[in-house]
Design a protein that fits this description.
Tetracycline Repressor, domain 2; mainly alpha; about 200 residues; elongated
Length: about 200
Amino acid sequence: MPKQTFFNLELERRQAIIKAAVEEFAQLPFEQASLTKIVEKCGIAKGSMYQYFEDKRDLYLYVVDLAYEQKRDYVRKAFEKGGDIFSVLEEYYLESYSFARDHPLFHQVANKFWDSKAEALQSELEKGRLSRSHDFAQFLDDAMTQGKVNKALDPEAVFFVYHAVGKELVDHFDQGQSAQFLKKVLDVLRLGLTTRREEV
């Protein structure tokens, strides 16, 4: 996280550093991103950056936190709106798409974080995965208890499917797709591929 010296900077200078870092980390994965390019873009000496952050990893994780702070402002609306698990998940992915559309660079930063193979990030990635799967497991367990979801399903398998499909939907939703298509995809997950009673 930033040192106090970063917060002591004028707002305009802080924003310039953040903007340059977001642009670099949105374009390249952590291991390929260049701290040199970031300081050149925001017009400060490289040595000065170490007065504000411990290293590139420290700056990177701060930018990732900013991205997720922004995303949380969107997706929390899905949980505030309420409804059953399927309604909430549908709203969650619609809000995730809205975030990706409104903040494309932050969206790319978040995606590159989860796709990273950098050894320096593995502990953070593992903590993040565990936290997300735990939150989803609690949400899913409530739905199973309420009889909304088949209790025989493996929670890890359900999380994997929803996470994979949801990521693909959000990443490609702007390529001619509509909100109606998103609903149709989630409907496949909700009802499965088996013949439905009304179709027999």
